[in-house]
From TrEMBL:
The active site is at E25, S153, S289. Pathway: Cell wall biogenesis; peptidoglycan biosynthesis. Transmembrane segments: none annotated. SUPFAM superfamilies: Glutathione synthetase ATP-binding domain-like, PreATP-grasp domain. Keywords: ATP-binding, Cell shape, Cell wall biogenesis/degradation, Cytoplasm, Ligase, Magnesium, Manganese, Metal-binding, Nucleotide-binding, Peptidoglycan synthesis. It comes from the Bacteria. It is an enzyme of class 6 (ligase). This is D-alanine--D-alanine ligase. Mg(2+) 2 binds at E278, N280. The gene is ddl. GO terms for biological process: cell wall organization; peptidoglycan biosynthetic process; regulation of cell shape. It comes from Pseudoduganella lurida.
Amino acid sequence: MTTLTQEDIRAFGKVGVLFGGRSAEREVSIMSGTGVLAALRSQGIDAHPFDPAERSLGELAAERFDRVFIALHGRLGEDGSLQGALELLGIPYTGSGVMASAVGMDKITTKVLWLKAGLPTPAYAVLHDDADLPGVAATLGLPLIVKAPREGSSIGVFTVNALDEFQAAYDKCAPLDDAVLVESFVTGREFTVAVLGTGATARALPVVEIVAPKGNYDYQNKYFTDTTQYFCPPQLDEAIQAEMARIAVEAYRTLGCEGWSRVDVLLRESDQRPFLLEVNTSPGMTSHSLVPMAARAVGLSYEALCVEILRSARLKNTKV
């Protein structure tokens, strides 16, 4: 790991690490932010914690941070809201800007843009109160995946194997958003691809395969158990891995993401074709998280990864 010089450290200035927040993913964000804070401090960087759920934007401005590392997940941290506030306050920040953050948080808009760009993603329908559930099931086929389109960490995600389960899944998702996303179920293996950089410099880190108990990579199995297995690199033809990396980077660029993100991919068993699921513009940085795992595979330590991400912090809507 490259040691930062005093000049490097001075260039970062006073750094805020934003974590916690008020979303359903607060607990995970606290774990991510605590790790990032410790990593930056271990490199001599003047880093300070800041929880937007406990302190106001006025206090954020008063801290006079030279830049901030966003370790918030979900609503009001990953959805463009905070990014807009930081633009107004003139505080450079990590990750994607207002538009890409908002779009990436909305799985429906993400799918529309990916399909427009010719990228593969499962067939879907958008449901409202008057939805014809039997008709949707007949069109897409069973099983189905039912999702709250603006939640993360597998919150509000249900697998429907029979028509009589569809209404119950819809009823659980509907209170979370103003629409419900339904996708065709893709039978196959689950992968994720971390992407670092911006525009033409965006690059994929090695592919990670996720093997969860009974194929259920839910909130508990993501963060709080040790039964989920991860393989990096996976046992998979290199050409398929290269194609996953290619579509992940293209998906990232299509949404205008920058800095870093993680793109989730399913590999269909029947024909080994990859399908894009979603993008996470502020991925987890916990002990179970996948971006640090992929970074380690290319010799990039957790601390070095945090520094690289911090180095990319900037204002996106201001020409300087």
